[in-house]
Amino acid sequence: MLEIKNLDVFHSYIHALKDLSFTVKEGELVAVLGANGAGKSTLLGTIAGLYRPAKGEIIYRDEDISKCSAERIVRKGISLIPENREIFGTLSVRDNLLLGAFHRYRKDKTTIQKDLKEILEIFPALKGREKDLAGSLSGGLQQMLAIGRGLMTNPRLLLLDEPSIGLAPLVVKEIMSILVRLKASGVTIILVEQNTQSALKVADSALIIERGRIAHMGNSSEVIADSSIREAYLGRVCL
Tens digit of pLDDT for each residue in 178-190? Predict the structure, then answer.
């Protein structure tokens, strides 16, 4: 589904990503791990069209999208759930969800209403709170809302940046369970996470980024089993 070829990305004079290459299969959940500042969020932002690569290709469903705008990439079926959620706190839960379908609102109103109901089935904790201001929700509910808004774009590929940040362990467990169900429904997922234990539990494969380069990639069970990888990059992981 997705192939990253020799990707280089700069933030001003900072070389954020260096010659990255990897592939993501259809229906796969890939965990992207590494220290703060390693380049994980830059990777997601580049795939989503927020940053323009200096070199390399992003091949999505046999098309190079490396020069596409963020809006066009959303229309092609890629949705980014950013770090810190970035919901609209002064808008209602319902309006936040509808904003996720803005690009198809005029042509697809009937389907959008159906999708809205399906999102509330996926996140039953949001049911009955559609008129509440998004800013009044707890952190866990705001994260569910952010994911729901992303799903309203009808994505084939979902990019999640630190969805567990600042959340209680039980809420993290619930969100990871939802990601597993989304994968089972056919959504391909790239998950950036500092919570390595939770990420590796649900991921099919993992790649570890260090200083803008891929230090290791393989299936999640290999990463868990390799003590040298755990000690060098992941710290103590108890599964």
Answer: 999 999 999 999 9
**Largest interatomic CA distance in the chain:** 53
Helix ranges restricted to H, 17-135: 40-47, 70-75, 93-99, 109-122
Sequence-separated (6 or more) residues with CB below 8 Å from residue 136? none
CA 81-83-87 angle, 5° bins: 65
Give the C-alpha separation, 204 to 219, whole Å: 6
pTM (whole model) above 0.70: yes
Report which of 184, 122, 129, 109 is spatially closest to residue 150, judged by C-alpha positions.
122
Query: Which has the closest alpha carbon to 150: 170, 180, 179?
Result: 179
Quick one: which of 11, 12, 77, 85 has its CA closest to 46? 11
pLDDT digits (tens, 9 = 90+) for 123-176: 999 999 999 999 999 999 999 999 999 999 999 999 999 999 889 999 999 999
Amino acid at 168: A
Burial of 146 (0-12, 13-18, 19+ CB in 10 A): buried
